[in-house]
Input
Amino acid sequence: MGVTEGFPFNETTLVFKVGEKMFALCGIEPFEKVNLKCDPEEAILLREKYQAVEPGYHMNKQHWNTVAVNEDVSEKLLLAMTDKSYELIYNSLSKKIKDGLGTKEG
Output
């Protein structure tokens, strides 16, 4: 809940935010990769396990991964990684911002 999307950088990079903080961004022409926030330790493990997962392109490489779609990461895992990215950002928001989103903690 509370997700917004837009094109703050250019007309081909779609950015998803919660509470005005990015949790995902991707190119849409063509849609080949997505940048997702990640726990630093988990980010390393995912990069070691999957060829499609690399340090975040143009992002803090400790906290972001770039994931190539349609490679060795399943759709189910990609969706789970997106959910985790959202949760990391949502959980970092202040109670005031969360309340403004109309969502509940947890």
